[in-house]
Design brief:
This protein has 482 residues and is α+β, with helices and mostly antiparallel strands. It contains 20 helices and twelve strands.
């Protein structure tokens, strides 16, 4: 597909895959050009939207792709930034502390990327394996290509091209470039938006592949894509990397398909672009005007199109004031329901679906001490109901017991059933604590905060944290489509 997403390294993949500005090695043969034009027509027929202009298309070998990724990653993500990403993900237990995250990313992308569209350079290219590619993933890919041709009479490259050409349509007609896909402090929103982009492109691709048989297979395809995160090189990598890579395709597909088939109110039906869309695609076109705002809405589509459950934006105070001048923020961002579930699963917490559902909003800050290089995390979460907050509190309590092999745990009695507090001490903590505290629907997690600073940090967070409903996205570049 065109670009890959990994939570908290989302900026990197957008830079090197979606937004790369290097011309691909082009295939200038007339046959290739004719094929691109033919597939452009097929995509337009399926989706009912026409390209405004032609697109430059080309081909890379896997070796060319890997060389390109190494060059671009080195340029866009310097060593210190890569180390920052690693420290943040490792602090929450999502990857091993000693993992070479850049090496893992390059290997994963090289093995999984089949093609992509560069919406800045307006170029598209596919990745074509050569006969010399002999890894297990390459062998699997070749076997899948042969199966597609034998069962469906379809060239796998054509499928990839159809998927990527749908991204061209999204860019030229639906305002892809206006979506805030570069993160801007809310990776959960980015993952949700990508679910729309990749989900729609996957539906078009599968309609092309299965043709009249699509309706008999469509409800199984999302699950099949999810299973792909457990195969090949992906099976050996942390779920945080592989599951967030697959999520926009698998869960994005399921979400977009359900929205496509849902009965939505007619409040936007007079907007020209929606009005002129094929009837069966009106709801999908509508998603670009009124997109989902969280992975919670992707995972639970009715929270988008039935009883809208928008996320709560958390605004944290500056915790360096109570912590002290030696502490510097590494990153501040949002995990979201999908990554919360991955986090709980990583430590085999029971009932992770229940504990992550009911997510209302969150924001974390990871900080590093400039003197001793210790890393601390502040994570404020809010939940739909007090029951949801209690379930998460219990689940995360189980997680930190395992994560830190706690040697001492102190329960501070609840006050009128409105507050729960747990403090944990663990080996080699050097005076740092893990603190979990619940007040009504909010749960505050502090990890690695020095004992003598804990009270002041907690007081600042409970008193100064603000919450507001996120109702719409801030577009990067408004294209007048609606």
């Amino acid at each position: 597909m065109d670009y890959r997403v990994m939570k908290n390294i989302v900026h990197l993949f957008i830079l090197v895959v979606l937004f790369m500005q290097v011309a691909p090695a082009q295939d200038n043969s007339q046959d290739f050009s004719d094929k691109v034009k033919k597939l452009q027509g097929i995509v337009s027929d399926i989706r009912g939207l026409k390209l405004e202009s032609s697109v430059t298309a080309g081909v890379y070998s896997k070796k060319e792709l890997k060389d390109f990724l190494i060059r671009e990653i080195s340029k866009e993500v310097p060593k210190e930034k890569a180390e920052m990403y690693q420290k943040v993900a490792a602090k929450f237990g999502l990857i091993p502390k000693d993992m070479d995250i850049m090496k893992a990313i390059i290997e994963l992308l090289t093995s999984q990327v089949a093609g992509f569209y560069n919406n800045k350079a307006k170029e598209l290219y596919i990745i074509k394996p050569s006969d010399s590619d002999d890894s297990d993933d390459d062998k699997t890919s070749k076997a899948q290509r042969q199966m597609l041709e034998q069962l469906y009479g379809i060239d796998a490259d054509d499928m990839v091209m159809v998927h990527e050409l749908m991204h061209v349509v999204q860019d030229q007609v639906l305002g892809l470039s206006s979506l805030p896909l570069d993160g801007d402090g809310n990776d959960d929103l980015v993952l949700a938006l990508k679910g729309v982009v990749e989900g729609e492109a996957s539906i078009v691709m599968y309609e092309y592949m299965f043709k009249d048989g699509f309706d008999t297979s469509k409800y199984m395809l999302g699950g099949s894509m999810r299973e792909s995160a457990k195969t090949g090189k992906m099976a050996d990598l942390p779920a945080f990397l592989t599951h967030t890579l697959v999520f926009p395709y698998s869960d994005g597909y399921d979400f977009t398909l359900k929205v496509k088939e849902a009965k939505l109110p007619a409040d936007l039906s007079d907007i020209p672009l929606i009005k002129d869309t094929k009837p069966e695609w009106k709801n999908v076109t509508r998603l670009y005007k009124d997109p989902p705002l969280s992975t919670e809405q992707i995972l639970h589509p009715k929270k988008y199109y039935d009883e809208r459950d928008n996320p709560i934006s958390i605004i944290l105070p500056d915790v360096t004031k109570p912590l002290g001048a030696d502490w510097n923020p590494l990153e501040q961002n949002v995990w979201g329901e999908f990554v919360v579930k991955i986090m709980l699963d990583e430590y085999n917490v029971k009932r992770t679906n229940r504990a992550s559902a009911g997510w209302g909003g969150d924001r974390y800050t990871v900080l590093e001490n400039s003197k001793d290089k210790k890393v601390a995390a502040v994570w404020f979460t809010t939940w739909d109901t007090e029951k949801d907050a209690k379930e998460f509190f219990t689940a995360y309590r189980e997680l930190v017991r395992t994560k830190y092999s706690a040697t001492k745990e102190e329960d501070i009695p609840s006050i009128g059933d409105e507050k729960d507090i747990i403090l944990l001490e663990f080996p080699d903590s050097d005076g740092s604590l893990v603190s979990l505290e619940r007040r009504d629907k909010d749960v505050l997690v502090l990890e690695g905060i020095p004992k003598d600073k804990l009270g002041d940090v907690k007081d600042a967070l409970w008193k100064e944290t603000k919450k507001e409903e996120l109702k719409k996205i801030e577009r990067v570049k408004e294209k007048k489509l609606y």
